[in-house]
Amino acid sequence: MNKRFLAELLGTFWLVFGGCGSAVLAAKFPETGIGFLGVAFAFGLSVLTMAYAVGHISGAHLNPAVSVGLWTAGRFPARELAPYIAAQVLGGVIGAAVLYVIASGLPGFDPGGFAANGYAEHSPGHYSLLSCMLAETVLTFIFLIIILGATDRRAPGKFAPIAIGLGLTLIHLVGIPVTNLSVNPARSTGPALFVGGWALAQLWLFWVAPLVGAALAGLFYGVMAPDAGEKIPREEEAV
Fold first, then answer.
1. Is the torsion defined by CA of 128, 130, 135, 136 positive or negative?
2. Torsion sign across C-alpha atoms 30, 36, 40, 43
3. What's the pLDDT tens digit per position in 113-169?
4. First vs last C-alpha separation in the chain
5. DSSP letter at 121?
6. Which CATH architecture has domain 3-106+115-237?
7. Does residue 106 come out as left (phi exceeding 0), alpha (psi in the -120 to 50 range) or beta?
8. Cβ within 8 Å of residue 56, ≥6 positions away
């Protein structure tokens, strides 16, 4: 497998294992649980750390929506979309699988939602399908604007991972009560496979909304900042 695809697999594994792991293992731990705030920071830190660890290899997209947004912005080649997305989804599934094995070691383990994303009765706050779709689309749009702006050749160098990681943290603080927050189809797919049933039935939303939001962000940024950089950036200039 190409080194960039391996980097995407590893990075997405860490995002799902670290972010979803914090929700499954630590969010409600008796007396010292980290809650929504801790889970939000876990997702942000997973992206921040992997951006520095593998960003110079693959660009650290770690998310099919990011790859699509960079493509519509003219900063990622169409020929690499499918391999990147495949690597991201595989990494997310492996991350969820490892987490499931660890979590199931607890006596009386009940997978429950297993950090899966959902709407209506499976939304943490029981938000409607429309509310969840709008939240996922808008939050993904903003996430991609942060990524595209932070990696613009005119932005302060070497600080992009910090802005992106903190941006993802803020987005989780807004979105966890609504959908358990996805903005990332690979992150949603891994846990859904282990929950099955309703999670798989609702998974379509967590592909459609993030991809639409990301694609729109790429197009919008291209209009707002047409001189952002090269058409296809060098790896070290990517996310």
1. positive
2. positive
3. 799 999 999 999 999 999 999 999 999 999 999 999 999 988 877 889 999 999 999
4. 21
5. G
6. Up-down Bundle (1.20)
7. beta
8. 235, 236
Q: Are 61 and 239 in contact (CB under 8 A)?
A: yes
Angle at 50 between CA 14 and CA 3, to 5 degrees: 90
Q: Taking the CA of residue 16 as centre, how many other CA atoms within 13 Å lie in the half-sphere pointing to its CB? A: 33
Could you give the maximum distance between any two Cα atoms of the chain, in Å? 57
Q: Is the dihedral of CA 178, 180, 183, 185 positive or negative?
A: negative
Q: Which residue has the tokens 């903003």?
A: 142
* Number of neighbouring beta carbons within 10 Å of residue 94: 17
State if pTM tops 0.70: yes
Tens digits of per-residue pLDDT, 72-103? 999 999 999 999 999 999 999 999 999 999 99
Q: Where are the beta strands (DSSP E) in the chain?
A: none
Between CA 188 and CA 92 the distance in angstroms is: 8
Q: Where are the domains of the chain?
A: 3-106+115-237
Cα separation, 232 vs 236, in Å, equals 11
The two structure tokens encoding residue 54: 């593998």
Number of C-beta neighbours around residue 201 at 10 A: 12
DSSP 171-219: HHHHHHHHHS--S-HHHHHHHHHHH-HHHHHHTTHHHHHHHHHHHHHHH
Give yes or no for a contact between 42 and 18, defined as CB atoms under 8 angstroms apart.
Answer: yes
